[in-house]
Amino acid sequence: MTLAGTFHLRRREYSAIGANAVTLTVMAEQGIRRIALTSSQGAGDDWARLNPLMKAFINLSNIKVGFTDHTGVDQVVRASDTDWTLARAVALTDRPATRPLHAAAPGTTAPGRWINRTDLARFLLDSVEEETWIRRAPLVWNARG
């Protein structure tokens, strides 16, 4: 289950944090325990693993807002009682689906640079169906160059 987020018209502000907090509340009320969400390489506790140049780029650009949102979602999800998976995607691409798909715990191997959206979606579905990566946040990629 994923939820895109909320948009506050008066403030013109988007927040996936609040939307996911509501989702987790409803899940708890309904007895639903499993959730798999897309996160980002460098979000949350993965920030320390980014190189200084990437950190500077994020902090000086408008994508800082997105990283702040991803980090907030990570915190809300980790604090929940759910069996969560946060798929930390590397750079997304619209290229056709390819294989092989790779996933690894952060810091265990150097990830590739890209993942296409179709394979990322497949990873999320597989992690739920196969009950893998529970309460973990793996890096996910399928292309190295």
Strand order of the largest sheet: 3-4-8-6
Gyration radius, rounded: 15 Å
Q: Helix count?
A: 4
Q: Which structural category fits the helices and strands?
A: alpha/beta
What percent of residues are in strands? 15-25%
The main pleated sheet reads as: 4 strands, mixed
Are there runs of 5+ residues with pLDDT below 50, and where?
Answer: 6-10
What form results from the Cα inertia axes? globular
Average pLDDT reading? 85
Please tally the β strands and state the result. 8
SSE pattern:
EEHEHHEEEEHE
Roughly how much helix do the residues carry, as a percent range?
25-40%
Q: Span from first to last CA?
A: 31 Å
What does this protein look like?
By secondary structure, the chain is of the alpha/beta class. It contains 4 helices and 8 strands. The chain has a 4-stranded mixed beta sheet, sandwiched between helices. A two-stranded antiparallel sheet has the order 1-2. β1 (6-8) and β2 (13-15) form a beta hairpin.
Brief write-up:
This protein is α/β, with parallel strands linked by helices.
Topology diagram in text:
Elements: E1 6-8, E2 13-15, H1 16-30, E3 34-40, H2 52-60, H3 64-78, E4 83-89, E5 91-93, E6 102-104, E7 114-116, H4 117-129, E8 139-141
Parallel strand pairs: 3-4, 4-8, 5-7
Antiparallel strand pairs: 1-2, 6-8
Helix pairs in contact: 1-3
